[in-house]
Structures are given as C-alpha cells and as structure tokens.
Amino acid sequence: MLSNSNKMQTPESSYWYALRVKARSEKWVQDRLEKLGIFSYVPINEYTRMYARKIRKVAKPLITGYVFVFSNQKRFSEIFQIPYTGKFISEFGIPAVIPVSEIDLLKRITGEVIGQFELSDSYTVGDMVEVISGNLAGIKARVLDIKGKKRIIVSLDSIAMGLEIHVDPSHVQKVLT
C-alpha cells in the first residue's frame, strides 16, 4: 500500500498521505481540512440497519481512524494544528506516499464514481467503453444505444454474444484507441 518513492519527495509537491486521527472523528477532521483548503478523503461505507421499529441508513468510515490527505509537506504544520489529528503513516520516519491507484481503489470499493462523464459530450453509438465500477468492472464493451442521460446500452464483444446490458454512464469510461 505504501510507495517507495519517498526519497524523491519535495516539500512543494503534493501527494496522498494517510493521517491517523481519533476514532469517530474522521468526518469532523475532514471538514476542518476542507476549511483550510486542504483536499482530503474519507472512504465511507453506507449500509442499512434494521431496528425493532425502524430502518436507518448508516454511514461509517471504511477504515476507522484514518483520513487520506492530498497535501505537500509545507502544510503539515497546519494539519497538525487541527484537534484529534495524530501522525502520518510513515516509512523509516518519512511520511509514506499513498499511490493514486489505491485511492481510486477505495473509491471503487465504496461505490463512489471515480470520474463523472457527461453523456452528451462523451459517448456516441459505436464507441468502445470500459466499465470502471460495479460487478462488471474491467470489461470492455461497445455502446449500442443511448437512453437519455441516465442510461446507455452496451454490447459485450468479449463473450461473442449479442448480450445487451443497461449501464449508468458514470460507470463507464471511453477507451482510447
């Protein structure tokens, strides 16, 4: 999970870091970071909880006690001024860089969309696309039809059948040829 590129870090460059925070204060710390203009990410796992007389949706951090921070080393002192923050996860005393691919993986696990794609500008019938989230992630398909802005129909060429599936446009990405 941790990157070995720590030796090449410069104080001016921004990277993803994992910041240890007090348990159950992840969202609060994220709000304070955003107020300072520091981009941060807390992967949230949402699920439904059934009680005796009601059903509630619950949102809890996927990884308790951590906030992922995109910052440079010059802003670390500002970050540590926020209550409930601890230390950055480090390797050999140097804050460890979290690869962007792993942040994207956390977004896929929690069901967040990695990139929003505007359908009218991005897809036309016949385009090759790759499904980037959901059960079919990683499968390449061809756009057969566009049904409004919320749905497209794709054909899976990889299984050599005329199988048509309905996919949310935000779950696919155009394949560059």
Q: What does the model show?
A:
The chain has 177 residues and is of the alpha+beta class. 19% of the residues are buried. It has 4 helices and 13 strands. The chain folds into 2 domains: 5-109, NusG, N-terminal domain (Alpha-Beta Plaits), CATH 3.30.70; 119-174, SH3 type barrels, CATH 2.30.30. The protein has helices spanning 26-35, 76-80, 100-109, 119-122, and strands spanning 15-21, 39-41, 44-50, 55-61, 66-71, 85-88, 90-91, 94-95, 128-131, 140-147, 151-155, 164-167, 172-174. Residues 3-7 and 114-121 have low confidence and may be disordered. The protein is globular.
Topology, pairings included?
Blueprint: E1 15-21, H1 26-35, E2 39-41, E3 44-50, E4 55-61, E5 66-71, H2 76-80, E6 85-88, E7 90-91, E8 94-95, H3 100-109, H4 119-122, E9 128-131, E10 140-147, E11 151-155, E12 164-167, E13 172-174
Antiparallel strand pairs: 1-5, 1-6, 2-5, 3-4, 7-8, 9-10, 9-13, 10-11, 11-12
H and E string: EHEEEEHEEEHHEEEEE
The CATH superfamily name of the largest domain is NusG, N-terminal domain
What's the rounded overall pLDDT mean?
Answer: 80
| Helix content estimate | 10-25%
Number of strands: 13
Please list the strands of the largest sheet in the order they lie side by side. 12-11-10-9-13
- List low-pLDDT spans: 3-7, 114-121
Number of domains: 2
Give the name of the CATH architecture of the largest domain: 2-Layer Sandwich
What is the gyration radius calculated from CA atoms? 20 Å
The CATH class name of the largest domain reads Alpha Beta
Outline type: globular
The fraction of residues in strands falls at 35-45%
In angstroms, what separates the terminal alpha carbons?
A: 31 Å
Instruction: Count the DSSP helices.
Output: 4
CATH topology of the largest domain: Alpha-Beta Plaits
